[in-house]
Write a structure and sequence with these properties.
Layout (H helix, E strand, L loop, with lengths): L2 H44 L3 E6 L2 E7 L5 H13 L5 E7 L3 E8 L25 E4 L12 E4 L17 E7 L1 H8 L3 E4 L9 E5 L4 E9 L1
Antiparallel strand pairs: 1-2, 1-10, 2-7, 3-4, 3-10, 4-6, 5-6, 5-7, 8-9
């Protein structure tokens, strides 16, 4: 091999080594980025607000999705912080459908609420079993404090076409058995504390009370 050819071969080898080193660096950077992204996502999931409902049937822990339902979550947390849910009951229980609460006290009277919020029914979260969503009237933007926990997949409650849907804002992560217990209690028809002569159906015979609601993770 001539001196000229040797130098050219040496230069090519050096260039190839540099390219290989650069590729390794890029691969390492991508791997690090992927790990960092995964870690960030895990951290974000771990930091979802958690609310614990201490009920007469047991404790229910709910993870809230503040990213997809920011207004609904903020509204729900404001009621938790104010103590609004303390002493309210699950006043409407329909087996194989849902359990509803957060608005009436043991005397079947509605508690005073804040102004209604904008419906976030199109946020992508679905009314699947053990998800929590806002109760409302026929007006999509009428939700205040009342919520319900789905006890089966209720796809017809999701936003679809002209159906504004019912805004899901979290899911039960602990106390699934408690939800199941509440969903199977015996119910009856009771007189409304606010509207005499207008009885309410599907009311538990023995009141299921939310004794306290507290934020266990902000």
């Amino acid at each position: 091999m001539t001196s000229s050819n040797f130098h050219r071969t040496q230069i090519r080898s050096t260039i190839n080594l540099r390219i290989l080193a650069a590729a390794i660096c890029v691969t390492s950077a991508i791997g690090l980025l992927t790990c960092s992204t995964t870690a960030a996502q895990t951290t974000a999931q771990n930091k979802s607000p958690l609310v614990e409902l201490n009920t007469s049937a047991g404790k229910i822990t709910i993870a809230l999705d503040a990213e997809k339902a920011p207004k609904t979550v903020a509204n729900f947390l404001s009621y938790v912080k104010s103590g609004h849910y303390n002493g309210t009951i699950f006043h409407r229980v329909i087996p194989d459908f849902m359990i509803q609460g957060g608005g009436l006290d043991a005397a079947m009277k509605e508690k005073k609420t804040k102004p209604p919020i904008v419906n976030e029914g199109g946020n992508g979260l679905k009314n699947v079993k053990y998800s929590i969503a806002m109760a409302r009237t026929n007006d999509p933007n009428s939700a205040t404090s009342q919520f319900f926990i789905n006890t089966k997949d209720n796809g017809f409650l999701n936003q679809s076409g002209r159906n504004a849907g019912y805004a899901v804002f979290g899911r039960v992560v602990k106390g699934l058995g408690v939800v199941d217990t509440v969903s199977n209690v015996k119910t009856t028809t009771k007189e409304s504390g606010d509207r005499p002569g207008l009885p309410m159906q599907n009311v538990p015979v023995t009141a299921v009370t939310i004794e306290s609601a507290k934020i266990v993770q902000q």
